[in-house]
C-alpha cells in the first residue's frame, strides 16, 4: 500500500508531516538537492569557488565555460572586459587579469610574482658580538610578493625594508644598516638603531656611546646610574667606575711640598724627559706632589724617575683624592720611557679621582740633588 506524504514549509526548511516513500529526510529549501551541488541565487552551496571569475564554476557551481572562454562577472565570454586581459591560467583555463596588479600575471600574462630565493642566508641579524645585552630582532624574512604598476615587488611587515626582494630589519641588520646599501665593517662594527657603531658602543642621542662605561647610558640609551651605584662599570651600575684605559689629563701641579734642587711639574707628561721644567726632587719623607686638572676613573698610576737604577730612585705612597691606593717603589729600577709601560706603576680597583697625590716614603741618599735624608726624583706621572 502506498502512503502519501504532506510537507509543511517553514523558515527552517521542509518538515515531513506524514510518511511516504520518502525516508523522512528534511530538505533545506536554500539548497538545490541535486547531487551536482548547484546553488540557489544566494551562492551558499559552493563558497570555495569564485562564481564571478572561475570558468569552471561561472555564475553557479555547475556552470562551466568552454575551454576558450573566460568567466567575467559570472558570465561566460570569449573576451575580457576592458581593461582586463585574457590570460591562460594553469589552474583555471583562461582568466581575466589586471596586468597592473595581478601577482599571477604581472605586466604580461606569463609573468608570475614569487618570493625571492634566499639561498643560504643564515637567520639572524648577522652582527658580531658587541658585548652589550641587546635584542637584535629576527634579522630578515621573505615577505609577500606584490604586483604594482605591472612590476613585481615585495611587501614587508613589521617595519622591515625590502632589499632585492628580501625583507630586512634595517635597524639592526649588519649588512643593510639604516638602508639597503649601508654595510657595517666586518668584525669591528655592529648595527643598532639603524647606525653602525664600534663593538661595545650603542647609538644614543645622535652618536655612538660606550654604554659599558657611560654613567648616563649604562648598558642602554638613557639608563642613568645614581645613588649608591653612580658609576657604569662593564655595563652595570656600580659603586665602581670603568676606566677608559688611556692616560687621563691630571696635568696640573696643584701643590707640592718637595724641597729638593728641582721644582718643575712632573704631572704634565707621562714620558721620561730629564729637564728641570718637569723634574721634582724630594729631600725628606712625607714631602708630596699633587696632580690635578680633571676628574676621571682610573685603576693605574705610573711614574718616571731617572734612567739609571742607582740614582734618584725611591718609594711613594699613592693617593686618589684622600684615599691611599698603593705604593710605588722604584729601588733597583730604571724608570724611563712611558710611565704606563715601564714597570714603575701600580694597579688598584677602579675609582673616580680628582687629584693624584704622591707622598715620599724613602729613597736613595745622594746621587740626585746630593743632600737630604732622602734624595729622590719624579720626572713624570700618568694615571689611567
Can you describe this structure in just a few lines?
The protein is mainly beta. It has no helices and 27 strands.
**Could you say which structural class the secondary elements and strand pairing correspond to?**
mainly beta
Per DSSP E runs of 2 or more residues, the count of β-strands stands at 27
Looking at the overall shape, the CATH architecture of the domain at 252-383 is Sandwich
The averaged pLDDT comes out at 86
Work out the helix count: 0
Q: CATH homologous superfamily of the domain at 252-383, by name?
A: Galactose-binding domain-like
Identify the overall geometry. Answer: rod-shaped
Strand order of the largest sheet: 18-20-25-22-23
Distance between the termini: 115 Å
Report the C-alpha radius of gyration, rounded. Answer: 43 Å
Order of helices and strands: EEEEEEEEEEEEEEEEEEEEEEEEEEE
Q: What share of residues is helical? A: under 10%
CATH topology of the domain at 252-383: Jelly Rolls
Structure description:
The protein is mainly beta. It has a domain at 252-383: Jelly Rolls, CATH 2.60.120. It has strands at residues 7-10, 13-16, 70-72, 75-77, 85-89, 93-97, 140-141, 144-148, 151-155, 161-163, 166-168, 189-192, 195-198, 201-204, 207-210, 231-233, 236-238, 252-256, 280-282, 288-292, 296-304, 314-320, 323-329, 345-353, 356-363, 376-378, 380-383. The chain has a five-stranded antiparallel beta sheet with strand order 18-20-25-22-23, with no helix packed on it. A hairpin with a 2-residue loop joins strand 3 (70-72) and strand 4. The N and C termini lie far apart (115 Å). Mean pLDDT is 86; it is low at 1-40.
